[in-house]
Amino acid sequence: MTGHGWSRRHVLLGATTLAAAGGLFGVADLARSATTDSTDHGGGLRVGYLPITDAAPLLIAHSAGRYPSGAGRPVLFRSWAALAEAFLTRQIDVAHLLMPMAVQLRYALGSGIRVLGWNHTNGSALTVAPHIEDLTDLAGTQVAIPFWWSIHNIVVQQLLRAHGLKPVVRRRASRSQRTVELIVMSPSDMVPALANRSIGAYTVADPFNAVAQIKGIGRIHTFLGDVWRDHACCALVTRDDVIAEQPAAVQTLADAVAGAQLRITAERSAAAAALAAGSYLPQPKPALQLALTYPTPPYPLRHPQWRPQQIGFRPFPYADFTRRLVEAMGETVVDGDRRFLDHIDPSGVHAELVDDTFIRNAMTSHGGPQAFGLDAGLTRIEEVQPL
């Protein structure tokens, strides 16, 4: 066994599980993360991220020089599977991960993952080929998702079912049977796949929706925040051992992320410029600018009062969201092992998965919940309306 209770066999089984759950992309990254020595990293927190606007708070915090002492530049990964495996094998200590993936890692693999807070809300959309007008036009097509256990997969399936379509996996889609085949695809591959019409749509985080629009190869059909109000896509995560060994560094990073969230909210254009200038994100500045500042028109919004087109940066992780998320995971079709869901109580997951101590402290140091546009009571009831 390793010093933290992980055998090599357990690590490799985790790699196999994540590779299956994440599709075929990222296998090379998985192999590297599973075999790289993880014993000498200089003692500072190591941060990993995917090149999407969801990671903006972590990246802006670094660009502002707010990371804990000894922490290096955040490391870019190309797939969710690779990022998660690096996290499991202790190549990194902190990351932004998909909230449903965090549930999977804790309960399917038994990892000591802890959600510290939300990295952002909203920030994702369903982008369709130009000829797709109504969701029912997706019958008989393939729709790409970034990971099986993602809010994207959950919400797009809610949308499809609400419009009389049936999501399927490993089955060719049929227009007559009103089925839509879901496939996992790396976000960077989605744009060219839509351009050559090998898929009818994709659902993913920005700036990939903005990129398709700027290039004229697709258009945003639905912002996911127009279905699930202010949902959390990615969360700031670490592990129990990191909290135990470096609590002061974890608190410093939480403070830095909360401060960056306020900074981005106040100066979105400046944040886009910083992300581009610092080479944190590889997409062109116009796409980053659009992703952070979507105007209301000409997008068809069913709940304009929700401001679903706007990525939000509010750090507090609500318990009702976690409960509703786990319930929704139980209703979602995936290509992979879902038996871990049979043994968990949705109402108890939040207390086991989330440690909001550091984010509460961070919000207090930055002016309290009100500074983030949150109610002082820090409670809310989820609003989910797929029709």
From TrEMBL:
<keyword id="KW-0997">Cell inner membrane</keyword>
<protein>
    <submittedName>
        <fullName>ABC transporter substrate-binding protein</fullName>
    </submittedName>
</protein>
<dbReference type="InterPro" id="IPR006311">
    <property type="entry name" value="TAT_signal"/>
</dbReference>
<dbReference type="Pfam" id="PF13379">
    <property type="entry name" value="NMT1_2"/>
</dbReference>
<keyword id="KW-1003">Cell membrane</keyword>
<keyword id="KW-0472">Membrane</keyword>
<keyword id="KW-0813">Transport</keyword>
<comment type="similarity">
    <text>Belongs to the CmpA/NrtA family.</text>
</comment>
<dbReference type="InterPro" id="IPR044527">
    <property type="entry name" value="NrtA/CpmA_ABC-bd_dom"/>
</dbReference>
<dbReference type="GO" id="GO:0005886">
    <property type="term" value="C:plasma membrane"/>
</dbReference>
